[in-house]
TrEMBL record:
InterPro entries: 6-hairpin_glycosidase_sf (IPR008928), 6hp_glycosidase-like_sf (IPR012341), Bac_rhamnosid6H (IPR035396), Glyco_hydro_78_N (IPR049164)
An example molecular function term from Gene Ontology annotations: hydrolase activity
UniProt-listed Pfam families: Bac_rhamnosid6H, Glyco_hydro_78_N
Span of domain Glycosyl hydrolase family 78 alpha-rhamnosidase N-terminal: 6-124
Keywords from the named record: Hydrolase
Keyword set includes Hydrolase: yes
Domain Alpha-L-rhamnosidase six-hairpin glycosidase: 145-468
Protein name as catalogued: Glycoside hydrolase
GO annotation terms (biological process): carbohydrate metabolic process
Length: 489
């Protein structure tokens, strides 16, 4: 799209039935739209009917939303039909949207008058109470840009809870929460919202005690009836990181039984050799990559969570309650090395087809399963170099590849991964980071239609944490004792 007039010109132009225009607010935001509609040329002798399409990216407003081919409800498509009876009038849309662009189409109006749109205003909403200072100028410009866009992504998802996407799904998922919380500790310090989210999950379990993969806030807190085994494991991890970041041991102790219950439920799903196998009975997410076998990655997530449970127990002075987890960690790691490692290819495989995927290597490295750093590094490099290996399509999974690289001393490659993947989204025009992005197929959608995609999605905000908390990309000789961040809440 190209600009044809400045914002001030809009209030000086008249629009008749059949006319359309697009307003660009300059950056992505979550919020509400208002405007004043004024008749021009004659008294308004009829209502006007408008179609308003809200766009996070240009394709939302530059091409038709229909025909729609997605498998999730078309009710998520970001459009409104608005009829205004009495002109002039101020219209305030009651529904919240996530958008940068708004396309206005005059569907119906009397031929006797034109319509002028004045005071077109976007009212942004967020629970963020501060904005951290930018990264120092010593950082490369591309890192500063990725950091800024990551923070804007977090800001626009930060409402009364950490929403996964303010456009769609507008709910709280455990996997998203972990990455949002990490980014928040390094930037916005919305610690109170992290705590609230942990209690929402803990208070809405399913009958066997497993937390749900997602919960809803509105119209009242309700469990999502979607259990995700890898997300249940990450509840324990997120609680441990919250206690470590805030020192809130009171919350940690209160939610400790919930965290333990997740681990115990997951351990009950192991076979006699201490291996987890994805039977499909209960959903494992890991990534949206098509055809991904999730057994190895989920096994590793459980080991990762077990290690964090031991760390949480130490923080809460209750290590004696989980002494038996230590041998289980060792046994599960040994079983994975024996059953999953393909020494000839130098990778870990998954499932009966011995599938190789990049995200399985990442989780296995994070779980501390490889016998050495050399083996860990080789597994990641070999999978990434294998054209047959399954590659992820979400920033969520790419985050864990980057985190795994940092865990085994591959900082340079982690930085290049962030540059190529998140930087690739910037090159494609992102001003918040997206739910899904496949560099080989930028128009791919997990839902069958790109108009169902979310283009401001919580799980893509993690570069802010990688840069600020993990030191990724820190310039040589940088002497700052700490990077700028928000104040604790």
């Amino acid at each position: 799209m190209r600009p044809v007039a400045g914002g001030a010109d809009l209030a000086r132009r008249d629009w008749a039935e059949g006319a359309a225009f697009i307003v660009d607010f300059g950056e992505h935001l979550t919020g509400y739209l208002s405007f004043r509609a004024v008749p021009v040329g004659s008294v308004a002798d009829s209502p006007i009917r408008l179609r308003l399409t809200f766009g996070e990216v240009p394709t939302d407003v530059a091409e038709p939303l229909y025909p729609y081919s997605g498998w999730i409800s078309a009710a998520w498509l970001p459009e409104e039909i608005v009829t205004i009876d009495d002109l002039p009038a101020v219209a305030k849309l009651p529904r919240r949207h996530a958008f940068r662009y708004v396309k206005v189409e005059v569907l119906a109006a009397s031929r006797r008058f034109g319509v002028r749109f004045e005071a077109m205003t976007a009212h942004a909403v967020t629970s963020a109470r501060n904005e951290p200072a930018p990264l120092p100028a010593a950082y490369p410009e591309w890192i500063r840009r990725v950091d800024l866009v990551a923070q804007r992504t977090l800001r626009d998802c930060l409402q009364t809870a950490f929403e996964d996407g303010p456009r769609r799904d507008r709910r709280l998922w455990v996997g998203d929460l972990r990455l949002q919380a990490l980014a928040s500790y390094a930037t916005l310090r919305a610690d109170d919202v992290v705590k609230r989210c942990l209690y929402l999950f803990a208070g809405l379990p399913r009958s066997d005690g497993l937390v749900n993969g997602c919960v809803y806030e509105r119209p009242e807190p309700t469990y999502g009836d979607t259990t995700t085994l890898d997300y249940a494991a990450l509840f324990c991890v997120t609680l441990q990181e919250y206690v470590e970041a805030t020192g809130d041991t009171v919350c940690g102790r209160e939610l400790w039984p919930v965290a333990r219950r997740q681990v115990d439920c997951l351990l009950a799903r192991l076979d006699d050799t201490l291996m987890f196998h994805d039977t499909g009975e209960t959903w494992c997410f890991i990534d949206w990559a098509f055809g991904l076998d999730k057994s190895a990655a989920t096994h590793a997530v459980i080991v990762f969570a077990l290690r964090r449970m031991l760390a949480l127990a130490a923080l809460l002075d209750c290590a004696g309650e989980v002494d038996h987890y230590g041998p289980l960690v060792d046994g599960m790691a040994a079983a994975a090395r024996k059953q999953l490692f393909d020494a000839g290819r130098g990778v870990y495989t998954s499932g009966p087809g011995q599938q190789v995927s990049c995200v399985a290597q990442a989780w296995i490295v994070l779980a501390g399963i490889p016998e050495s750093v050399d083996v860990a590094q080789a597994a990641l490099r070999n999978a990434l170099a294998d054209p047959q290996a399954v590659r992820p399509i979400t920033p969520y999974a790419y985050h864990y590849i980057a985190e795994a690289m940092l865990a085994c001393g591959m900082a340079g490659e982690a930085l290049e991964l962030v540059r190529s993947y998140w930087g690739g989204m910037l090159d494609a025009g992102a001003d918040t980071f997206w739910e899904a992005f496949d560099p080989a197929d930028p128009l791919a959608s997990p839902y069958g239609d790109i108009h169902a995609n979310s283009y401001c999605h919580a799980w893509s905000c993690s570069p802010a944490w990688l840069f600020r908390a993990r030191g990724l990309g820190r310039p040589p000789g940088f002497t700052g004792d700490s990077l700028p961040q928000g104040e604790g809440a």
